[in-house]
Write a structure and sequence with these properties.
- By secondary structure, the chain is mainly beta.
- It has helices at about 5-10, 35-40, 50, 120-125, 160-165, 250-255; strands at about 10-15, 30, 45-50, 60, 70-75, 75-80, 85-90, 95, 95-100, 110-115, 135-150, 170-185, 195-205, 210-225, 230-235.
- The protein has a single domain, classed as Hypothetical protein, similar to alpha- acetolactate decarboxylase, domain 2 (60s Ribosomal Protein L30, Chain: A).
- The radius of gyration is 17 Å and the shape is globular.
């Protein structure tokens, strides 16, 4: 299947802010901007979190200026600052990149220890390779350890994302209970999404969290929602380059090396 055929099969819809419809649809991902734009340093968006949350109650992203990691759980937006400390994010805050879904999961899947990030797909019985659609995921459990990161707010003129992540702050959280939320994106969405599993974490106390680099699960439960449509809102300065396969190697190297 070609990339264009894939996008048509997924029912990808590109819109501008003025074209947004207020309602959300079951199993539909809603996203503002693209990972391609974020990697290039487009750190200012035109949608508020209140607008984003009209389209979903589970998701992730960041805030304007790359001001922390965004975690959306049960419709509540949380922000992890550069020290991976959580606080409730304001609905008036704007975002340059976020993905949410009205979460409608299938029956839960029990997860057993030992389980690491690299083994997640096998553990939940979901292979991203060759699939026609992304999958939303939520994991609730007790973790032997979670390795998370966040970055400091960037100043204009903005650097590229890989440069900003060179100054990332990494925290190791040991013996912590909490929730991971995120998405699995297949290769055909490279350039629109961060392909593979993309997860953010919030502790049950809502005190610590961030972008997940790795984890070791003690016990937990996963819930998955196979999505069928993707609506992407493009900020004024962002254009979608169909067919462009983005080289994310610098970003992946930072993810591995931390």
């Amino acid at each position: 299947m070609s990339e264009l055929e894939f996008l048509n099969a997924l029912h990808v819809e590109m819109v501008r802010h003025r074209e947004l419809r207020p309602e959300s649809r079951q199993h539909e991902l809603f996203q503002t901007s693209t990972i391609e734009a974020l990697l290039g340093g487009a750190f200012d968006g035109d949608l508020t979190l209140s607008e984003i949350l009209q389209h979903g109650d589970l998701g992730l992203g960041t805030l304007n200026g790359l001001d922390g990691e965004l975690i959306v759980i049960d419709g509540d937006p949380w922000r992890a600052d550069r020290h991976c400390r959580l606080s409730r994010a304001s609905g008036s805050s704007r975002t340059p990149y976020a993905v949410v879904v009205p979460f409608s999961p299938a029956p839960p899947v029990a997860l057993r220890s030992p389980l690491r990030f690299a083994d997640l797909g096998q553990a939940v019985g979901h292979r991203l390779q060759g699939t026609k659609s992304p999958v939303a995921i939520r994991i609730d459990g007790h973790f032997e350890r979670v390795r998370v990161r966040s970055v400091a707010k960037q100043r204009q003129p903005y650097p590229k994302l890989a440069e900003a992540l060179a100054g990332q702050r990494i925290s190791g959280l040991d013996h912590v209970s909490g929730t991971m939320v995120g998405f699995g994106f297949p290769d055909a969405l490279d350039g629109i999404e961060m392909i593979g599993w993309h997860l953010h974490f919030a502790s049950d106390t809502r005190l610590r969290g961030g972008h997940v680099l790795d984890f070791g699960l003690g016990s937990g439960v996963a819930q998955l929602d196979d999505t069928t449509e993707l609506q992407v809102e493009l900020p004024p300065a962002v254009e979608l380059h169909h067919g462009a396969i983005l080289d994310q190697e610098a970003l992946r190297r930072l993810e591995r090396e931390g």
